[in-house]
Amino acid sequence: MRRLIVAATAALTVLGGAASAQESIKIGYIDPLSGGGASVGEGGLKTFQYLADELNAKGGILGHKVEIVPLDNKTNPQESLVQAQKAVDAGVHYITQGNGSSVGAALEDFVTKHNSRNPGKEVLYFNYAAVDPSMTNEKCSYWHFRWDANSDIKMEALTNYMKGQPSIKKVYLINMDYSFGQSVRAAARKMLGEKRSDIQVVGDELHPMLKVTDFSPYIAKIKAAGADTVVTGNWGQDFALLLKAAADAGLKVNWYTYYAGGAGGPTAIKQTGLENQVFQISEGVPNSGNKAAMDFEKDFRAKTGISVWYPRAVNEMRMFKAAAEKANSIDPVKVAAALEGMKFDVFDGGEGFMRKDDHQFFQPIYISSFGSLADKAKEPFDEENTGWGWHIVSKIDTAQTMLPTTCNMKRP
Amino acid sequence: MAELIVISTLNGVLFGMLLFLLSSGLTVIFSMMGVLNFAHASFYMLGAFFGYQLTRWIGFWPALVIAPLLVGVVGMGVERYGLRNTHKHGHVAELLLTFGLAFAIEEIVSMIWGKSPVDYRVPAVLDFPAFTVFSTNYPAYKIFMLVVSVVIFIALLVTLKRTRVGLIVQAALTHPSMVGHLGHNVGRVFMLVFGVGSALAGLAGVIAGPSLVTQSDMAAYLGPILFVVIVFGGLGSLPGAFIASLLIGLIQTFAVALNGSLASVFGPLDPSLGPSPLTDIWNVTIAQIAPILPYLLLVLVLIFRPMGLLGTRES
Amino acid sequence: MTAAIQVNAVEKSFGNVQIIRDLNLSVAKGERHAIIGPNGAGKSTTFNLISGHIKPTSGEIRLNGEVTSGLRPFEINRRGLSRSFQVTNVFARMTVWENVRCAVLWATGHRYAFWKNVDSLPEVKQRTAQILDDIHLSHRRDVPAGLLTYAEQRELEIGITIAGGASVIMLDEPTAGMSHAETERAVALIRRLTEGRTLVIVEHDMSVVFGLADRISVLVYGHIIASGTPEEIRGNPKVKEAYLGEEVD
Amino acid sequence: MTNAPTPSLAAAKQESSGALGFYGVWLLAAAALVVLPLVFSSGGSLTSFSLIGIAIIFALSYNILLGQTGLLSFGHAVQYGLGGFLAVHVMNAAASHNWPIPLPVIPLVGGIGGMAFALLVGWVMTKRAGTVFAMISLGIGELVASSSLILRSVFGGESGITTDRTSLMPLFGWTFGPQIQVYYLIAFWVLVSAIAMYALTRTPLGRICNAVRDNPERVEFIGYDPHVVRYLAYMFAGFFAGIAGGLTAINFEIANSAYLGAMQSGFVLFSTFIGGTAYFFGPILGAILVTYLQLGLTSVTSVWQLYFGVIFIGIVMFAPGGIAGILMKHRPLIRAGTLGTVIPSYLVAAIPTLAFALGIILTIETVARFSGGDPINLLGIPFVATAPTTWAAAAVLVVGGFLVARITWRRVADAWDRAATVARDRGYLA
């Protein structure tokens, strides 16, 4: 009976939506599509386009087709604002962005100002990867929703894992010298101190971002400090070069990373041969064991040629649909209200929720390591054709990732 | 302490030689033609990608020879059909031409090989630790890079100072019209020199590619530092570039090794002062600013000795 | 009366090579003084030393009694000395009018002014027009200097040199490369324009030298071997031996 | 503005009748700035106009260095960015202390910021021109950009410092929240700055800058210290760059380290050079074109950077005078009345040239989209990147276009020579 009603409603919406179906929901995808960050941005775009296709194949959202509008921001905050304005002018009410906290902060500020100055033309900012904690703390905005765990949450999860690893005794922190790297470093020091006061932080390095060509001197310092574990938020070439220098010098430590799986990362790890020594904190793993997720992964790889690097994007789009249906509207104001506090079964299984206080999504977090895959049936997915893949070392439940917020949310 | 000094010196020399490998071609072109080639790092990138592609097809060692030659041919083409026509409009125009070229090459490379890093690996023959100092391994490949750098330095020096070709090149630099009147085709000499300079960049790319990250934005990362090297060493001076590379390599490496900041020397500031530029400066470590030290050096050198360390002229 | 230019025991070396040895020269105010000498004698170097283009290794140079050795060229220029160049040295992309006007600006006291419209400065306009008239280039006033004929560029060179109204004018081979007719015209021009000023001239053309100069100094190997009136120089045996004997005009 | 060439062949002839034309041009520009948003009223075009306006001031300020004084700078964004930062700080301070500073004077604050930095470092920087200056500017640019990430309390790290332009004292009821009000604010400053910078070229200092550009050695012998001249030029350039930076800060309500970076410095060099450095209005054309391309090209093609590079190379090689240079080359012909004899040959040459250009575009897009992407839409005709017919079409256009274009351009050159000879005879061409 209930099914029938659902079907009938669906049919009605399709019929009723026929008129409005011409009006698609445009999501402005603002990320680098040219220049240095383009490899990452293109991966994200493919992901969102795939997700839009998936939604549209099932009738879209409330009968509206979902359309991704790619906007190239060259990883430049100013350019992002130009693109955001362009998108808004073209009738876009939802923008999504992930790469670069500086861009994220600029966009968050943009939507807040835009919405207060243009009531009735609200825009929502769905953040799928900008992890600066300030965006859901002191700078928080009602119009911003973040599906990625911020860097403090990831550190909370990581340190909760590390506190159960007695072999970790001496930790070295090396990070890129910008806000993300700094928050990784600060959070690591604070949380390790609270949870495992016996762990010694033997080094704490910040190096300029994307300027170092030779990491050997840093490796020499890590070695001299006698570290057994390195925690790093490095990504891109700063990660690859760091790892290469370590392998060259024969440094044997465990690497706890945020973005080892980013474009080029797996290739670098395979090159250095550091099997099962590089760990990653993420909200999803291709070899998660969750059937639905793994089927999705398989189809996604077949269609796009890349792996699902953004399970959070999947959560974002599916939850968007759920919220719109809950509000029975695609009006951004109503969708925003529906999203607040919403609970949602996440991509890799388990429950997450969008905290009302700060619009931060909380979800289970995984620690995985990179190496050869023993059981191809259970763990079928490798990365970047290296033959190696991620396998889960530990799962940290949603409750273990909760952190308080300083957000003083201003509601319209 | 001894460990730190020995290892830092070794690392500094290795890094410095990589810098020299990259900047030698730039210096040769500049000393000869007075052209600051902004696209030099792009030629280096072309070398790396050609090297990568050829390694997949025919192996590393043939690639080591062929890829630089290909880059040299590209360079000669640029000189023949681009720079030569621009020469009459002055050095600024030449420089801007290479500026535009750098943009185009980056995009072309990313069109062909994509924007992600490619899997360009150290050849198996050289993939072993050459020796170990204080339990730190030094891979054979790095030693290979060092040897190539030194060989190139000596070969260039000998060619420029001791051979007829070198004499013509040197003379064409100071008195182009005279050399022209003596029956040498200055145009062809220029083209050849530009080709050789580009080929050197290409060679650097083939060799540095596996050790660094071979990606379409690799040129943008290394471009500015190369200018620092050749300006610091003295525009157009090969020994200057050699010394500058070593110095910059050592300075950067030692700076990284040092943890000192003003706070660690004079004690932390009173926290009640709150965040200010002073606290920022107070707490920044030498290691943190290591990679921007070369630029500081560049500015200081240009202010106090505009011809650079061993240079003889200003522009 | 103090001399316009007084050079006392000046030496100049480039590395190990001594170009100027114990150079002594005195040019009285209002005098037309020519410096002659064989090629490579150091005439241009002497010019460069006096005008501040290069600094002497030792010795002293005075302009109107004031020590100027060690000063920068513009400082010397502001004290009333202006020079021309052997190789044409004008502002190639600017028009003839602009070339001369730039040379007028400092002397008329406008200096680095960025609050005045350069086109509405009557005295600048008048003086520039006058000089253009004097050097017979009024009809070419809007032509970029780089596009002038060689002789015109030489005339412009003289125009720029005298435009500032300096009391001491130094001309470095002003007629070099000119035809006979052009030379005659240039000499008349120089004579007229330097009326009442001190003139120092380097020249190879002896007819120009002997027709124009009140006094002549002969420079050989960086040293002045004789100084005097044209008649004295003609009759000087040292000059005959060292210079006229070798390079008879 | 077209009567503002530096080496004007006929400035004097115009002088008497020029005054009216001179004010006329500026009045016309002012009217155009007022009317523009009424004609193109969509939000998108307002944003574009605002950005173009800022780019114009920035490029004009750069040309004080490159075109007027002959200084090639690779770090002009430093003054622009610092002006932006100072503007943001003053805006925030004014908002929190309730200072009675209306928003329209904020760009002036930016200008002072840019000038103050130039004042500070300019003296040692401008000691020498040429390569030394270029390299010092590169070094200073890198240093300041890097330091901006270290001095977090001033520059706010890489996320920068935000501000709210509406929080300042409203002026005549304008809060400057809506983009249209910001547009008019920018337009006002564009006009004021452009007039000021044009006036600067007509002052004794402006003329001496040209002299320093042409021949710094000779300048020393007409009483000027070229070092002082360069220093002053550098300060003025810094001032106007700072104004542009202040306007950017107002427009985006944020200042971050990207303002100071090499990208910005390169962008302004591009604009100025493409527009043409020899004429005052050149950078204006360049700024309009480059900003427009930057906004437009990115949504049309993913390889916009390649087109930028190709356009730039083309300009450097074939028209080093930039767009303004091309236009001004025709001026003597127009005056002599012989332009008409050239135009037919242009029209003939345009066809194969266009074909050649289309062929290049098709080739580039074919390569770019070979491994996937939408079909190429060229003049409404769809081309599939993987289809051999597309390759053939590209090859025919490139090779055929090139060969035919070469012949037709020779004819243009002949026609030009004839027209120029006539113009020379009539006294309009030296």
Automatic annotation (TrEMBL), chain B:
Bilayer topology annotation: Multi-pass membrane protein
The UniProt record lists the keyword Transmembrane helix: yes
InterPro entries in UniProt: ABC_transp_permease, BCAA_transport_permease
Biological process terms in GO annotation: amino acid transport
Keywords noted in UniProt: Amino-acid transport, Cell membrane, Membrane, Transmembrane, Transmembrane helix, Transport
Cellular-component GO terms for this entry: plasma membrane
Molecular functions (GO terms): transmembrane transporter activity
Subcellular location: Cell membrane
Chain segments annotated as transmembrane: 12-38, 58-78, 90-113, 140-160, 189-212, 218-235, 242-269, 281-304
Family: Belongs to the binding-protein-dependent transport system permease family. LivHM subfamily.
Protein name, per record: Amino acid/amide ABC transporter membrane protein 1 (HAAT family)
Organism name: Bradyrhizobium macuxiense
Classification of source organism: Bacteria, Pseudomonadati, Pseudomonadota, Alphaproteobacteria, Hyphomicrobiales
